[in-house]
Amino acid sequence: MTTLSNDQIRQLNNYSVYVNPIGTPLFNAKNVDSSLSLIKLISGAPNDPIAASFFMRRVGMFISMQFYMMTMYDEIWDGPLEELNFFATTEYGNKTISTYIKQEHFRDVSENREEDVQLIWEHQCYSIIQQLRSQCNVSPLTLWENVFGYLLWHYHVFFQNPTIVDQAKQDWALMQNETIWTAFTTKSHLANYLKGKSPSELINTPVRTTCCFSKDIPGLQKCGFCPLN
């Protein structure tokens, strides 16, 4: 266990991840597959695939914070999926879903960083994608791309920072590592998404190949990475 600083907690909060509950947890990362109707109700999504995509964008905020904390502070959250909780809240006048995690499950990154990268991708991200896909016909590529977009800005900034750039480049390479990905899926979806380009080259470009359907959620707009004209 590590103790988070106020700056770390504020950064998590900026991405709707909270270490102190500001709402009643409704479900967790272990029972997402039985919560799609609730996600649909909260988001106002017109159908299940759009609800699944909406929720994966919210999960993507947590995943992006995991890699941010790894690179910036050498720390990650490593709690049981039953304690990766989600609750309903309101942001900018819109109903949405935020994340609640216990601070006690943060720890230092292990000496073998590959293990922790795989932990995040496989145990915390892929497991949720699989649950969503078991309940509706939604493209896995859409769900993965919903996570990747948040990472571009963080690593664009990291690469401009001389005090963190070396570690950022190492972690960025590990996050794309084919060996890590093929341990649980067919290929490195992140490497395929990036197509050899750096985060700075992809900021504010239509890097996605699928639509995330944010335009179909009440109160939201088309995202800046959308491939649709």
Q: Termini separation (Å)?
A: 47 Å
| Secondary-structure element order, N to C | HEEHHEEEEHHHHHH
Secondary structure class reads alpha+beta
Name the strands of the widest sheet in spatial order.
1-5-4-2
Q: What is the C-alpha radius of gyration, as a whole number of Å?
A: 17 Å
Helix content: 40-55%
Oligomer state of the chains in this structure = single chain
Mean pLDDT: 95
Task: Give structural notes.
The chain is of the alpha+beta class. The protein has a domain at 6-151. The chain contains nine helices and six strands; from the N terminus they run αββααββββαααααα. A four-stranded mixed sheet has the order 1-5-4-2. The radius of gyration is 17 Å and the shape is globular. The mean pLDDT is 95.
Short description:
The chain is an alpha+beta fold and 229 residues long. The protein has nine helices and six strands; from the N terminus they run H-E-E-H-H-E-E-E-E-H-H-H-H-H-H. A hairpin with a 2-residue loop joins strand 4 and strand 5.
